[in-house]
């Protein structure tokens, strides 16, 4: 039996098209990683260098879990970066100041810059690969190529991890692995992984209630899950209050930009307080979900896809966060030509939306190629403004990107509703079979 399973897995991944997709995606990343750079990458590794220098690995910041992982990784790769001790910014961890231009310039002059960029971005490549492997391994035979391609070759994914150098796909991999564990009846392991992803990044926080409801064996388990999360957070908060005199909860509510993003898109309410769109929609959907209380991996997949698409679409659209709309939506997009066309439209709108942010997320990413080369390139934002007024194209493009992303989330919900009503064959599974 085990030999048959092993042969089946070998046949699955010896498919020439699958091999070609993996190879092309890896080639794109290996080319982009040493040639592109954003200061976010430098900031987080500067904080890692400071943690190693001072021994204070647990200094509070809003990305504590993510920072710990980066500090550990930097500890492992630092021997491969000789002479790098003086490269890092001493102010990268100071709120409101960050790394200074002179610090960044010093880093870009490092003789082994290409090696450094590849090593520092390597965990993000691993995150992309783990997510792609899970999606491909657990997809139906007839859609496996499309599922892998729509993730591994997606310009949004390649840009986020290989070019921009953001760590979000690490936590996406953790979130998808948690769903895979739950589908294999390892509910509490899956819950632990999902909660860890939420501790590292903001977006998975909103899927935790849907996870608990979808994989419950009783409502008591749901209450225990919420209680465990609340107790763990209160314990962490109390530890920091007693040790450092600072409350992570109050710090996040007061200073964390993602909290402000939640209420940034709001409807006017006359003389009253503006009504934030995402919190309103999320509350309504969660109440409806608790009322119906569906169970199983299909229900969770649909809810996670819809919620993550809504978070991306209904908060300020920063380029490095759009990738969160993809992991649970990709298997639905791979279903037919309409879904694949929507994926192309979404990726195209994303690439055009980069123009709204100008040189820092486009031409200046190529600073490793030299300052003179970057200065020779036109600012894409200025080029776009010269062709079409920004007051016209930016709102229109934002509407397209928001509308397509919300529609993709709805397709995931619709697919699950149809599957449950029995009006069509079972939908594509993200991770495993229904239990």
Low-confidence stretches: 1-8, 423-428, 430-435
Rg computed from alpha carbons, rounded to a whole number of angstroms: 22 Å
How can the largest sheet be summarized? 2 strands, antiparallel
* End-to-end distance: 22 Å
The class by helix and strand makeup works out as mainly alpha
Helix segment count?
Answer: 21
| H/E series | HHHHHHHHHHHHHHEEHHHHHHH
Strand adjacency order, main sheet: 1-2
Question: How many discrete domains?
Answer: 1
Strand content: under 5%
* Total beta strands: 2
Range of helix content: 55-70%
What form results from the Cα inertia axes?
globular
**Overall average residue pLDDT:** 87
Structure description:
This protein is an all-alpha fold. It has one domain (2-215, 256-421). Helices cover 67% and strands 1% of the residues. The protein has 21 helices and 2 strands. It has helices at residues 2-13, 16-32, 39-54, 64-77, 101-108, 113-138, 144-152, 155-164, 168-183, 187-200, 208-214, 219-244, 248-255, 257-262, 277-292, 297-313, 330-333, 337-357, 371-375, 380-387, 390-421; strands at 266-267, 275-276. The longest helix is centred in the last third of the chain and has 32 residues, at 390-421.
Task: Produce a short descriptive summary.
The protein has 435 residues and is mainly alpha-helical. It has 21 helices and two strands. The model is unreliable at 1-8, 423-428 and 430-435 (pLDDT under 50).
